[in-house]
Amino acid sequence: MSDRSFGEPPRRPLTAAVVLVVLGLIAALGIWDVQPPAPRPASISAAEFSAARAFEHVEHIGQEVHVTGSPAATRVRSYISDTLRGYGLAPQVQDTVGVNAGKFGDGGMAHVDNVVAVLPGTDPTGQVVLMAHYDSVQVSYGANDDGAGSSTLLEVARALTQGGTAKPRNDVVFVFTDAEEACLCGAEAFVGQHPLGQKQSVVLNFEARGSSGPAVMFQTSEGNADLIDVYAKTPEPVGTSLAVEVYRLLSNDTDFTPVLAQSRFTGLNTAYIDGSWVYHSPFDRTTTMNRASLQHHGDEALALARAFGAADLAPLMKPASGDAVYFPFAGFLVRYPAALTWPLAILALVAVGALVFLARRRGLTSVPRTLAGLGLALVPLIGVAVAAQLLWTLLVAIRPGYGELLDPARPSWFRFGVVALTAAVLLCWYALSRRRVGPIPLATGALGLLALLGAVFAAAIPGGSYLVALPALVGALAGIAALYLRHPLARVAVLTVSAAVATLILAPTVALFFPALGLATGAAPALFGMLLGLAALPVLELLYRASTAERRRRLGAAPALAALLVALVCTTTGMINDNWDAQHPEPTHLMYALDRDTGTAEWVSLEQSPGDWTRKYVKTHQQLNRQFPVLPEGELSVGPAEAANLPAPQATIVADDRSGDQRTLTLHIASQRDVRFLSFYGEVGDHRVVSATVEGRAAKTYITDQNRFGVVFHGPPTAGLNVTLVLRGTDPFKLRLVDGSDGLTGLPGFTPRPATVGVFGSHSSELLAVAVTQTL
Questions:
Q1: What is the pLDDT of residues 551-562, one digit of tens each?
Q2: DSSP states of 728-772 as a string?
Q3: pLDDT for the residue 540
Q4: Rounded distance between C-alpha atoms, residue 415 and residue 571, angstroms
Q5: Dihedral of the CA atoms 196, 197, 201, 203 (nearest 10)?
Q6: Is there a single domain that holds both residue 344 and residue 323?
C-alpha cells in the first residue's frame, strides 16, 4: 500500500510545526472575531453607545425581583418612562390584557403594562420597532434577562435624541414589553392591539440568556436576505444562518414569536447567551453581567437603529425572495443568497469526484479505497458525539446538580476538555485507519463525506450547508492543485490554506455552539470540531510524515493518548475549579403544593436525581398533574408536607344562563392572598368547554391531558378575574382552581438553604400553590 500523500510533502519537522502554529493562530483569530468588544466609558462621545452609561440603567432595573404585576415591576416601569421623558420622548403605557400566542400552548394570559415611545422620523417611509422586555421571572433580578435589552434601548434612545446627530428619517418606536417571562403576553398585546403594532415594521428584539458572550443575532423572519445585508454592515456582526436554522427547530420562545406570527413584520432577534448558569436564577444580578456583552448589544442596536432609521423601509418591511446564507469569516460576515446553496453543494461533490479521479490516475487511491475512507470517516463523527455525551453523563453522575444546568458556572476548562477529547478521537482513528487504508483514501473519503453532508444539509437545513460544503469544495480544489504543484513547500502552502479556510469557518462555530447548547449537548460543538479535523486531514498527514517510518511505529497511539490525557487534566481541573460555593451554589428546585380538597400538602421538585438538600423534602416519584395542572407532565420528585393554613381561591357565580344543551357561566374568580398567578381548569368530556373569556379577552384554552382545559392568568387584579365560560351541557360542572405565590419561607417544615445551595432557574422554583375543586 502506498504511503504517498498529495505530491509528496517534505518530511521536515519544522514545516509541520510551522503549519500547526499557523493554524492555531488562525483558529484563535476566528474565535477572537466572535468575542464582544471592550466596554466603553461614559466619557465617550454622546453619539456613541456607552456600556458604562447603559449599566446605570441596569443598576436601576436589576436591583430587585420585578415579576409581572408586582410593585417592583411598577417601579421599573416608572423608571423607564421617566428616563424616556428625560430624553424628550412622550412614553405611553399600554394597559391591557395579553394572550399567549406562541408555541408554549399553556393557555397563558396576563394583565400587561407595556411602555411605548416614538421618536418621529423626519421623512418616514415606515417604522423601526426596537423591543425588549422589562419583567423578570419570580426568583431573578433580571439584570441580564432582560435588563440588558431594556437598558440597551434606553441608551440607544439617548444617543438618537441627544447624541448631536441628525434625527432618523423613519419613525423609531421603543417598546418595553411586560409579561414576556410569563407568557409573551406583552408582545402579543402590542402586535394585536396597539395602533403602532398594526403597521408594517422592521422589528429588532434584544434579549439575554445568560451573563456574557457576544451578542448573537440568532433568529430572523422568513426571507431575510435584505435584512442581512443591513446587519452585515454593523460594527461587529456575530451571527450565522445555521443558528437561525437550529432555532427554528427548537421550542424556545421570546417576544419575537408573536412578531413572527404576523406577516406585516420582518426583523432580527439578538441575544448574548454565555454564562447560562445565571439564567432565570437569583444570580441574574448586576454583579454577574459582563459589560463587554452589554457594549456589543448596544453597538449592534444603535447601528441597526441608525441603518434602518435612514433606509427606504418599503422593501425591507416585506420578506425578500429568499433567505441569505451567512457566517463570520476573518472579521467579516460573509453572505450569499440561499439560492446558491445547492449549486455550491453540487460543485463540492463534483470537485471531490474530480480529485478522486485524478488521484486514482496517479495511483494514489482507488474508488473502493476512497469509499472505504468515506465510511471510516463516519466513525470519529459518531464516536466523538457519543464520547462528549458520555463525558457530560459522567459529570452529572459525579455532581448531580449539573443535571439541572445547561452549562456549569465555570465551563471553560470543561470546554477545553471536550476539544481535547475531540482531538484524541481524531488522532486515534487516524493512526489506526491510516495503516489500513492509507492517507490519500482517508483524506479523499473525508472530503467526500463532507460533500455528501453538504447535500444533506442543503435539503434539511440550507442555512447550515456551508459548514461542510465549502470546506469540501476548497479542500478538493487544494488537493487537485497539490497534485500538480512541483515545489514541496508550494504543496504544503496550498493544503495549509485549505485547512485555514475550514478553520475560519468551523472554529467560530465551535466557539458559538458551546454556550448556545451547553455541555449538556456537548456533542454539537464536538461534531463541528471533528468536521474541522476531517477537513484538515492532509495537514494532519504532514505531522505524521515529519517523523521517520520507524518513529511513527514507535509513537503508535501516543498523540491520541496525549490528547486524552489533556482532556482528563482539563476535566479534572474543571471539577476542582467549579466547586459549589456561595457565589456559585448548587442549583435546587422545590415547591409546595397544598390541596384544600383533601387538606394535604406535598413538597415537589423537578430534580430527577435530587441532591442532598432536596432529599430532605422529597422521597418518591409520582405524578401530580391532575391535582396541580400548573406542573409539567411526567413523574416528579414528591414528599409529604405539613398542611399550612392557607386559603384557596374561590369562584362565585355571577350569572348562570341555560339555553337548550348550552350553559353560559359568568364567574368571578379571586384569590384570597397575594399571588403571582391565578388559574382554573375544567373537565372537557365531550367538548364541554366551548369557549372562555377572561377580563374581556378570549382565552386560548389548552388541553392539559385528555380530560382537562385550562387558563393561567399572570399578574391578576387584586379584586379577581371576570370569567365567562360557555359550556355544552347543563349538568353540574367541576372547576379546579389553583393560585400561586412565591417564597417558601414560613411554611411548616421548611428551613432556609445554606449558602452553597441555590435556586434552580425555573418558573416553578419556590412556588407555593394552593388548589381547590368547586362544583358549579
A1: 555 555 778 899
A2: ES-S--EEEEEEEEE--TTSTT--PPPTTEEE---TTTTEEEEEE
A3: 82
A4: 8
A5: 120
A6: no
> What is the Cα–Cα distance from 399 to 607, expressed in whole angstroms?
13
Same domain, yes or no: 270 and 398: no
Tell me which of 303, 329, 355 is where a domain ends: 329
- Determine the pLDDT at residue 685: 54
| pLDDT of the residue at 100 | 86
How many degrees, rounded to 5, is the angle at CA 411 between CA 407 and CA 415?
105
What digits encode the pLDDT tens for the residues 383-411? 999 999 999 999 999 998 998 899 999 99
Q: How far apart are CA 331 and CA 83, in angstroms?
A: 36
Task: Identify the pLDDT of residue 282.
Answer: 95
Q: Please identify every stretch of the chain with a pLDDT value under 50, giving residue numbers as ranges.
A: 1-3, 8, 102-105, 548, 550, 686
Q: How many other CB atoms are found less than 10 A from the CB of residue 553?
A: 10
Q: Residue 315, Cβ neighbours under 10 Å: how many?
A: 12
The strand pairing partners of 721, in sequence order, are 669
Domain extent for 325 = 51-329
pLDDT at 58: 98
Can you give the pTM of this predicted structure? 0.94
Query: Cα angle at 467 between 462 and 470, to 5 degrees?
Result: 100
Q: Is 773 exposed, middle or buried (0-12, 13-18, 19+ CB in 10 A)?
A: middle
- Give the C-alpha separation, 236 to 16, whole Å: 34
Cell numbers standing for residue 529: 470540531
Structural domains in the chain (count) = 3
The sign of the dihedral angle between the CA atoms of 264, 266, 267, 269 is: positive
Omega prior to 146 cis, within 30 of 0: yes
Instruction: Answer with the one of 263, 296, 329 that is the final residue of a domain.
Output: 329
